[in-house]
């Protein structure tokens, strides 16, 4: 289903996070992980975008979605996932990740984003009117105004490398 324009700002941020997951997963597969650099980048993306994104979803999207019986269980799951992901982001900030923790981080974050895109957003678009979506879109623009609006440029240690 085509994404409603009012949810696109969140979808763009999801793309940024998935790009981080792809780069990190490739680095892990290649065995080229600078743990300190990755933790710094994870911290940066949380501070500049993900933390604001989570707060916007929790304030503007989840309460609306929870009004629909078909989405209530999903909203509870997503709130719990936000809490678990915040703990992982906090571990990156405190530089307490082990290299093996990065795989768990990638898997949980990517799965969460896909769940929001494929289940929450699709579900909202099926049950909400165009007017309701417009209202949520306006609220999201305000809630996201302090987030970085572009993908963070990776530092040299976290940039994807060409295969030889």
Topology, element by element:
Blueprint: H1 8-30, H2 35-65, H3 72-93, H4 99-127, H5 130-143
Would you write up a description of this structure?
The chain has 164 residues and is mostly helical. It has one domain. Helix content is 73%, strand content 0%. It has 5 helices and no strands. Helix 1 runs antiparallel to helix 2, helix 2 packs antiparallel against helix 3 and helix 2 packs antiparallel against helix 5. It is elongated, with a radius of gyration of 16 Å. It starts with 7 loop residues before the first helix and ends in a 21-residue tail after the last helix. The model has no long low-confidence stretch (mean pLDDT 92).
Indicate the overall shape: elongated
Distance separating the two termini: 38 Å
The domain tally reads: 1
Q: Give the H and E element order.
A: HHHHH
Task: Report on the biggest sheet.
Answer: none
User: How many E strands?
Assistant: 0
Going by helix content, strand content and strand pairing, the class is: mainly alpha
Quote the beta fraction: under 5%
């Amino acid at each position: 289903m085509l994404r409603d324009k009012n949810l696109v700002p969140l979808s763009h941020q999801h793309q940024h996070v998935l790009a981080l997951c792809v780069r990190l997963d490739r680095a892990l597969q290649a065995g080229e992980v600078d743990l300190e650099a990755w933790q710094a980048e994870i911290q940066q993306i949380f501070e500049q975008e993900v933390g604001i994104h989570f707060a916007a979803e929790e304030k503007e999207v989840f309460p609306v979605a929870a009004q629909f019986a078909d989405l209530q269980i999903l909203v509870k799951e997503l709130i719990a996932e936000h809490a678990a992901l915040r703990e992982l982001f906090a571990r990156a900030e405190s530089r307490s990740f082990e290299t093996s923790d990065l795989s768990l981080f990638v898997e949980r974050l990517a799965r969460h984003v896909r769940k929001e895109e494929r289940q929450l957003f699709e579900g909202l678009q099926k049950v909400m009117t165009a007017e309701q979506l417009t209202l949520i879109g306006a609220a999201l623009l305000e809630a996201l105004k302090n987030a970085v609006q572009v993908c963070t440029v990776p530092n040299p240690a976290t940039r994807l490398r060409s295969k030889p």
